[in-house]
């Protein structure tokens, strides 16, 4: 251990968690475990359907398969650790473990920010310029967009994980959260973090507002195109293809903006935990449901897969 003035630097953190062992919290914990299982099965099934069904081999579903994978990884980064800590009554996490959690969480969060923007652009091209859609949204372009999403997210995650853990931490080890989220960790630093917090705030605003601006511009152009359509059926189909994505964007960006775009003075630990639970647990569960329930091609692919499974069992 090292020393900061006359205080010992701590070697690990203690996560206070989301729940106590009261009957109500036991019930809520059970609900979250069910939500996690739904998120795993829903996102895993969505990824499988897109992979095995040739009708879903288009840029829109290519992006959707990556969104499902990111949601699956995001939920798996947070919830299993929280569940184990709750069940075993232990919540100690090392500096390295905390850093990895920050890295994975912020990388996946940044990935989704940019991937949702690219998905909006994909819908804009499909509706506003359908004749050139296959040329503009080629496989190479789609892979570059996904790689760009991962790159932007990874850079953001690395920078924040490295700089957050470079501060000296002494005194209290208790993080008032259920995972290592940067604002909660920085409260324990025994150094002036005001400049760094300002830099994080600006960085998060840019990471959220730049993709959100691209999404807004894409949907504004889509709206203009739809209003100029003469066919009511064409307008209905165009809006239907965008409605699921708009619902996912609203859920994701709404929760992220509440967390990362509010000044620190307006944060409270309880509010932060509730909002973080929303986009680490609820959003990954809802995303595949939104896309599957509102999409005839996905439900058709699911019926086809179930039919194959039933035939296979019958032949066996």
The rough form would be described as globular
Low-confidence spans? 1-6
Q: Approximately how much beta-strand content do the residues carry? A: under 5%
Strand order of the largest sheet: 4-3-5
Helix/strand order, N-terminal first: EEEHHEHHHEHHHHH
Q: C-alpha Rg, in Å?
A: 22 Å
Helical content class: over 70%
Structural class: mainly alpha
Give the terminus-to-terminus CA distance.
Answer: 63 Å
Largest sheet: 3 strands, mixed
Report the average pLDDT across residues. 84
How many helices? The count is 10
Q: What is the total tally of β strands?
A: 5
Write the layout of secondary structure elements.
Layout lengths: L2 E2 L2 E2 L3 E4 L7 H30 L6 H30 L3 E3 H34 L4 H4 L2 H27 L8 E2 L6 H5 L7 H34 L4 H29 L8 H25 L2 H20 L1
Parallel strand pairs: 3-5
Antiparallel strand pairs: 1-2, 3-4
Write a structural description:
The protein is mainly α and 316 residues long. The longest helix is centred in the middle third of the chain and has 34 residues, at 95-128. Helix content is 75%, strand content 4%. The protein starts with a strand and ends with a helix. The protein has 10 helices and 5 strands.
């Amino acid at each position: 251990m090292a020393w900061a003035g006359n205080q010992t630097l701590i070697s690990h953190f203690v996560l206070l968690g989301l729940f106590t062992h009261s009957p109500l919290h036991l019930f809520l914990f059970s609900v979250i475990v069910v939500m996690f299982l739904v998120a795993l099965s829903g996102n895993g099934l969505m990824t499988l359907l897109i992979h095995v069904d040739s009708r879903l081999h288009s840029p829109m579903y290519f992006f959707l398969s990556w969104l499902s994978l990111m949601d699956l990884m995001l939920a798996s980064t947070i919830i299993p650790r929280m569940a184990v800590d709750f069940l075993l009554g232990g919540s100690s996490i090392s500096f390295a473990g905390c850093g990895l959690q920050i890295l994975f969480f912020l990388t996946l969060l940044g990935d989704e920010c940019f991937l949702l923007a690219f998905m909006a652009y994909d819908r804009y091209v499909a509706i506003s310029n359908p004749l050139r859609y296959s040329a503009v949204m080629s496989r190479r372009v789609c892979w570059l967009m996904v790689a760009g999403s991962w790159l932007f997210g990874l850079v953001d995650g690395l920078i924040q994980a490295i700089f957050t853990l470079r501060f000296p931490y002494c005194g209290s080890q208790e993080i008032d959260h259920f995972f290592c989220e940067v604002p909660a960790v920085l409260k324990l630093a025994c150094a002036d973090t005001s400049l760094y917090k300002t830099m994080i705030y600006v960085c998060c605003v840019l990471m959220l507002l730049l993709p959100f601006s691209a999404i807004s511009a894409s949907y504004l152009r889509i709206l203009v195109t739809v209003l100029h359509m003469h066919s009511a059926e064409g307008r209905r189909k165009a809006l239907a293809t965008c409605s699921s994505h708009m619902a996912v964007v609203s859920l994701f960006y709404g929760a992220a903006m509440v967390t990362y775009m509010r000044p620190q003075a307006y944060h409270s630990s309880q509010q932060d935990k509730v909002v973080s639970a929303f986009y680490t647990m609820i959003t990954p569960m809802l995303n595949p449901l939104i896309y599957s329930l509102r999409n005839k091609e996905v439900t058709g692919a699911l019926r086809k897969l179930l039919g194959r499974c039933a035939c296979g069992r019958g032949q066996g």
